[in-house]
Specification:
The chain is α/β, with parallel strands linked by helices. It is built from eight helices and four strands, in the order αβαβαβαβαααα. The chain has two domains: 91 residues, Rossmann fold (3-Layer(aba) Sandwich); 65 residues, Winged helix-like DNA-binding domain superfamily/Winged helix DNA-binding domain (Arc Repressor Mutant, subunit A, Orthogonal Bundle), CATH 1.10.10.10. It is 44% helix and 8% strand. The protein has a four-stranded parallel β-sheet with strand order 1-2-3-4, sandwiched between helices. Strand 2, helix 3 and strand 3 form a beta-alpha-beta unit.
Length: 203
Amino acid sequence: MLLHAQAEIEVVGEVGDGWEASRQAGELRPDVVLMDLSMPGPPSGQVIRRVLRACPTTRVLILTMHDDSAYLASAMAAGAAGYVVKKIADSELLLAIHAVHSGRTFVDLTHTDRPSRPPGDEQVGTDRERPKDLSPREREVLRMLAEGHSNQQIADQLRVSVKTVETYRTRLRQKLGLKGRADLFRFAAESGILGSDPVEPPD
């Protein structure tokens, strides 16, 4: 309703899941895609990349409830041009849309002073296990976790049990000295694992 009320903005399409987002982007070729990280379908990082492949001139702006620098790092690594949380005022959202449309980057997190790494985490990738020390399957699971896949989605794509995925997840946290999904996000983004090609869902 906010966007429809703006004379300078034309809403050319609306979609309900990530698969349709990339298809519609290729057909409608919008200037800006305003996207939620939590919509149904593929993980958000995969959707961003698909949208940009379908229409390279499109700018992707993330509007999300996730006020966390790890999610921000994930989205920006996938190619998003902006990231705003749903708590912002309507005027700020419109400002963000105009900013990314004009070619600028716009980021608005409520806790802008939050460190990009947890305190004492400066040695990630050096004293701790480095990405090259992970097995191919561990790297794959780490990337899929960082892209937002659930344990069940990973199990389905890799054709293993959920219990096996949980074991890999525990092993990754132990190897890398990381505590939770947010830390895994940060590590995957900073090490370049997040930017690797996503695994396509099975036919």
